[in-house]
Design brief:
It is built from 17 helices and 21 strands. With 510 residues, it is an alpha+beta fold. The protein has three domains: 129 residues, CBS-domain; 140 residues, CBS-domain (Roll), CATH 3.10.580.10; 146 residues, Roll (CBS-domain), CATH 3.10.580.
């Protein structure tokens, strides 16, 4: 008997990822542990490395009892890097949810409290993990939203009660710092002079920049918990445009709400500016608006509109070498390789040790060295980047003098272990690159620039007809050439051809 055939759709249905229904399906475990004695500086360092929406505070390192929670906003209460303020001074009462509860119930609770996460416990009240706004948005992506478009749920600019605000790029950060640090808003849309979107500013931008110390002032309560903080001695003068997230993705009223949810779940940024056809800001869509779209549908008095999805058209991207041939007539600066190449590149032998190479770099100030064999023929090249990469890849910790030898490299060891293994220094032959881009002396500097991009290097070796090295053109020489000759050059004359495919943050991976 012949076996029954299974269609492709049936196979996809069999392997389809189940839609999360309960809290246990979206539980997360923060990769670090915080206690009341943890300093705010340590908390800020953790959050810079591991962005987490909610951090449980345990009574001790060995305890599973949760004393409270802190949010990313708590890190902004740090007065200075030398401050010894402890997390215990700013703990917030947690929201406890059981792992057996439905995701919809948790979303309703978090929305009513405007909090980014909750602590998950089992039926006996024991700590299990946390559930975050980012994880819940990821779960919603597997469902069908009740409102399809951004138009049905976004918050217009004129609406006062919103979890997002609008600020001009030239405003001082101190003017909006209190609301950000107090958790009153999830972020700000930054506007330029034409009321276009210049970027967004969120808590994460401040945490990562470490520049909120000056002029932060006295923030308001964090999610309803009263905290105090002294005024900074120096008044903050930093402007919003210096700290904002530039090039933020924007939505239009006909953008699918799934695309916004995917953006937020991927980036952890819970606001997205909404613009009209002219690019002017007309509102903002927040994570809470996205949740409303999935759970309840359009807001009162609003209607859904037909969504416009990004056209997924495959575009062949030409190779960089093809891009060079597409522009044979482009000779913007009028300079050739022979005009800008370096001929006095410092030379070292194959067997020269790392300590000697380091001294040559420091003494000459060169960015590249030529390596020759015993017959004087060029065998390869070493850049400063190659030198540092070799040190890092070999896990070589530091230089050390021992037993009359000039320098020995000591292998990196784990904390608490004794370093017993000492290795001899590497040589120029170990570090040098033998494969590198080349160009003839009559190549234009524009062609050389493309070759650098194609090879991913900071230099191109100039060779004669027989393949012998004549000199080197580095990135610095190119910059000098364009500075002198390219003052009136337009971007269109240097840009990569338009056939190269482009994508924005709202494009699907497919």
């Amino acid at each position: 008997m012949s076996q029954p055939q299974i269609t492709r759709k049936e196979v996809e249905k069999l392997v389809e990822k189940p839609v999360p229904q309960y809290v246990r399906d979206v539980v997360e475990h923060p990769p670090f542990r915080v206690t009341p004695n943890t300093t705010l500086e340590t908390l800020a360092a953790y959050l810079r490395k591991f962005p987490v929406d909610v951090v449980p505070v345990f009574k001790s390192v060995f305890s599973e009892e949760v004393a409270g929670v802190v949010y990313p906003h708590t890190a902004l209460l740090l007065k200075s890097k030398k401050s010894d303020d402890k997390v215990g001074e700013f703990v917030n009462p947690p929201i406890f949810v059981k792992e057996s509860w439905k995701i919809e119930n948790v979303l309703e609770i978090l929305t009513s409290e405007a909090k980014w996460g909750a602590v998950v416990v089992d039926e006996e009240g024991k700590y299990v993990g946390v559930v975050t706004l980012r994880g819940l948005l990821s779960a919603l992506l597997l469902r069908e939203p009740k409102a399809k478009s951004v138009a049905a749920v976004y918050t217009p600019t004129e609406e006062k009660k919103s979890r997002a605000g609008f600020v001009k790029a030239i405003e001082k950060v101190s003017r909006i710092f209190k609301k950000l640090a107090g958790g009153e808003v999830d972020g700000y849309v930054v506007l330029n002079r034409e009321r276009g979107v210049a970027g967004i500013l969120t808590v994460w931008d401040l945490v990562k920049s470490r520049r909120w110390y000056k002029g932060a002032g006295k923030p308001r309560a964090i999610f309803g918990t009263r905290v105090t903080r002294g005024e900074s001695k120096s008044v903050g003068v930093a402007r919003v445009w210096r700290l904002m997230f530039r090039g933020a993705a924007v939505a239009t009223p006909d953008t699918p709400i799934e695309e916004v949810a995917r953006f937020m779940a991927t980036t952890g940024l819970y606001i997205a500016p909404v613009v009209n056809r002219e690019g002017k800001a007309i509102g903002v869509v927040t994570a809470w608006d996205v949740i409303h779209a999935y759970l309840y549908g359009p807001k009162e008095g609003r209607e859904d509109v037909e969504v416009k999805r990004v056209a997924e058209v495959q575009v062949a991207k030409p190779h960089v070498e093809e891009a060079i041939r597409l522009r044979p007539s482009k000779h913007v600066t009028g300079l050739r390789a022979r005009d800008v190449m370096l001929t006095d590149v410092p030379v070292v032998n194959l067997r020269v040790p790392l300590s000697r190479i380091r001294k040559v770099f420091l003494r000459t100030g060169a960015s590249i060295l030529a390596v020759v064999d015993d017959e004087g023929k060029v065998a390869g090249f070493i850049t400063r980047r190659d030198f540092l990469t070799y040190i890092a890849e070999k896990s070589l910790g530091y230089w050390k003098r021992q037993r009359g030898k000039m320098l020995i490299l000591k292998e990196q060891v784990m904390p608490g272990e004794r370093a017993k293994l000492l290795v001899e220094e590497g040589t120029a032959g170990d570090v040098m690159k033998t494969e590198y881009p080349t160009a003839p002396p009559d190549a234009t500097v524009e062609e050389i620039a493309y070759k650098m991009l194609a090879a991913g290097t900071d230099y191109v070796v100039i060779v004669d007809e027989k393949g012998a090295s004549m000199g080197v053109v580095t990135k610095n020489e190119l910059l000098k050439a364009f500075k002198e000759r390219g003052r009136d050059v337009k971007v269109g004359e240097l840009m990569t051809p338009a056939e190269v495919a482009t994508a924005d943050l709202f494009h699907s991976l497919h």
